[in-house]
């Protein structure tokens, strides 16, 4: 089979800078799509793997929050064609297993997609592990058609990339996992791309009170601009207490919140999210917790219907939900482009990752 050559940012070892190489990519086989990359967001998940917080086989090409233009489709692909503008979502459900048929596609049990990912990429004739079935920090992406969604002409590539992960994760967590009801009170801990997506969804869904927690001033400002009715700095002691839980409860009128979203990935913050719940409230953990980390729950609060749940990408039904979110963006209800606060060429990928790790802006983007 013919192979293609592209430039890609290769992570050889966690904690070390990536380097640009010519990487080989095979042409699409059955059910696969070849996409010329346009825009890639530097997601917190990418940072975790780049820093070695979570183990992942290396060498690899990171990046999964992406958009581009279809160059070629493999046999059996009929839903899209060459020339289509698309985004890529790393949730690639089979559509046949129990979770898929029950509408919980993110918990798909079919492992065949992971098998197909092997052998797509090579560096100097040595196989590279494809990252999350995407490996977007490259000029081309070869992905399963199940993860490819067409985008309208009036949606920018940057906005589409963010809808491929962070914005959709935040919004779907509110709409799907929390099933927010109008008038409820919402807490969002962490105001990066996911948290700001959740805040906007809470506003759109009619939340009466939205508390945003983040240590970075410009992210708190963004949260307030996008719908938060109160913002808190978790390092601030000006409220007269060092206790984040007490500060949140005070901001929520002492009653607690109905929905708490932890979008950072820190066990102590997950405990805080749960501890601020009103009776019947739900804490939803979307941040990636460290391997081996434990979340402590106050036993006395388990009564009265309080609960905690983990959620993968807000249990998104990608082909149903993401087009709806696209319409929210193009209709002016969901802010996306403004979250892409810095843009970098592939050659400056390490600088982009440094900016993201330092929480400069909201989302650093790699543009092709």
From TrEMBL:
Organism classification: Bacteria, Bacillati, Actinomycetota, Actinomycetes, Streptosporangiales
Keywords noted in UniProt: Metal-binding, Oxidoreductase, Zinc
PANTHER family in alphabetical order: L-THREONINE 3-DEHYDROGENASE
Location of the Enoyl reductase (ER) domain: 15-366
Official protein name in the record: S-(Hydroxymethyl)glutathione dehydrogenase / alcohol dehydrogenase
Transcription regulation keyword on record: no
GO molecular function, one term: zinc ion binding
Co-factor requirement: Zn(2+)
Family: Belongs to the zinc-containing alcohol dehydrogenase family.
Organism: Nonomuraea solani
Signal peptide: none
UniProt keyword annotation of Metal-binding present: yes
């Amino acid at each position: 089979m013919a192979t293609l050559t592209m430039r890609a940012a290769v992570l050889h070892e966690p904690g070390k800078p990536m380097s640009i190489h010519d990487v080989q990519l095979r042409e699409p086989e059955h059910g696969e799509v070849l996409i010329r990359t346009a825009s890639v967001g530097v997601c917190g998940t990418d940072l975790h793997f780049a820093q070695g917080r979570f183990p992942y086989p290396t060498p690899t090409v990171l990046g999964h929050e992406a958009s581009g233009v279809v160059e070629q489709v493999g046999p059996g692909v009929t839903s899209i064609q060459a020339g289509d503008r698309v985004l890529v979502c790393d949730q690639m459900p089979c559509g046949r297993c129990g979770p898929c048929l029950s509408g919980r596609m993110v918990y798909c049990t079919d492992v065949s997609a992971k098998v197909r990912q092997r052998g797509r990429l090579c560096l100097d004739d040595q196989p590279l592990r494809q990252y999350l079935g995407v490996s977007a920090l490259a000029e081309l992406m070869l992905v399963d058609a199940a993860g490819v969604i067409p985008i309208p002409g009036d949606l920018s590539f940057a906005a589409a990339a963010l809808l491929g992960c962070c914005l959709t994760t935040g919004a779907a967590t509110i709409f799907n996992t929390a099933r927010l009801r109008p008038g409820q009170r919402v807490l969002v801990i962490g105001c990066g791309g996911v948290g700001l997506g959740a805040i906007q969804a809470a506003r759109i869904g009619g939340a009466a009170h939205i508390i945003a927690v983040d240590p970075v001033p410009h992210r708190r400002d963004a949260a307030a601009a996008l719908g938060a009715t109160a913002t808190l700095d978790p390092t601030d002691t000006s409220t007269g207490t060092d206790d984040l839980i007490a500060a949140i409860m005070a901001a929520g009128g002492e009653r607690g919140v109905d929905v708490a979203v932890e979008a950072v990935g820190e066990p102590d913050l997950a405990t805080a999210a749960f501890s601020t719940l009103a009776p019947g409230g739900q804490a939803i953990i979307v941040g990636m917790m460290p391997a081996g980390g434990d979340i402590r729950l106050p036993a006395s609060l388990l009564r009265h219907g309080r609960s905690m749940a983990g959620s993968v990408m807000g249990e998104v039904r990608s082909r149903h939900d993401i087009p709806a979110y696209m319409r929210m963006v193009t209709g002016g209800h969901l802010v996306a482009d403004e979250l892409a606060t810095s843009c970098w060429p592939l050659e400056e990928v390490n600088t982009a990752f440094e900016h993201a790790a330092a929480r400069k802006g909201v989302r650093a983007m790699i543009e092709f």
